[in-house]
Design a protein that fits this description.
single chain, alpha/beta, TIM Barrel, 11 helices, globular
């Protein structure tokens, strides 16, 4: 079954925030993406609201509920109390927990489950009690023991951090090595009963090898590369291109 595409709207929001104007309209671009067959939308509301604003969350929640009830809303963030309350208020179908410092420019590593597992357990239990699926950001470095510790947190899925793979766009040999490590991590997760998502620096070019290496990949969350392509091809056609790269017949 092809991996499902969730469109990350952070880059759209960042462009909007360059001016005190309502365009590009985040919800409207989300609507176009969902109309083109995206499985869902993803946002990462950081404390400084430098891209997605807290006020965007109820608008996107209403968009899905009213127009695309089969779609999913995925909210990413560091598990602070403020973030947890945002999730409980918005009720996304999936929460993806990331270990980012609030000042980081972007996600650039997975959790250290050896030192942070105990921190995550009550957070994940709280979110799951609220009816939300929980995914945790994990390094795709082939560390089987770390995957076992991720399972012990109570998470439903891991999201493989694919930044090192995406960074190999000009080095195919290094890319093959990263794919092997990602597949090892994904296979270990599957053996533990965890679902596997992936995200970061994924493109139309590097997605097909990834989904071939991880045939049980459940979902990919893509923002930067997809938004860049949308400037050239438009949002609807870009979503179709990425769906084909995920293995869908579009």
């Amino acid at each position: 079954m092809p991996a499902k595409l969730s469109v990350n709207l952070n880059a759209v929001a960042m462009l909007r925030n360059r001016r005190d104007l309502p365009w590009p309209n985040v919800a409207h671009l989300g609507r176009i993406a969902l109309q083109a067959g995206a499985y869902g939308v993803t946002v990462h509301p950081r404390p400084d609201q430098r891209h997605i604003r807290f006020s965007d969350l109820p608008v996107l929640r209403a968009l899905i509920d009213d127009e695309f009830p089969q779609a999913e809303f995925n909210i990413e963030g560091y598990p602070s109390e403020d973030f947890l309350q945002l999730c409980e208020k918005t009720q996304p179908e999936q929460v993806t927990l990331v270990p980012d410092d609030p000042t980081q420019a972007t996600s650039d590593h997975g959790f250290n489950f050896r030192t942070q597992g105990e921190l995550l357990k009550p957070v994940i239990a709280r979110l799951k009690a609220g009816g939300m699926r929980v995914s945790v950001f994990a390094d795709g470095d082939g560390d089987v023991e770390a995957v076992k510790l991720a399972k012990a947190t109570g998470a439903d899925r891991i999201e493989l951090y694919t930044g090192p793979y995406g960074g190999c766009f000009d080095d195919p040999q290094a890319g093959e090595q990263q794919l092997m490590l990602l597949a090892q991590t994904a296979n270990a997760a599957l053996a533990e009963g965890l679902g596997v998502n992936a995200g970061h620096d994924l493109t139309v070019a590097n997605l097909p090898p990834l989904v071939r290496s991880i045939p049980h990949l459940a979902e990919v969350s893509i923002g930067h590369g997809l938004t860049a392509d949308a400037l050239e091809f438009g949002m609807a056609e870009t979503v179709r291109r990425f769906r084909r790269a995920c293995g869908e017949s579009v």
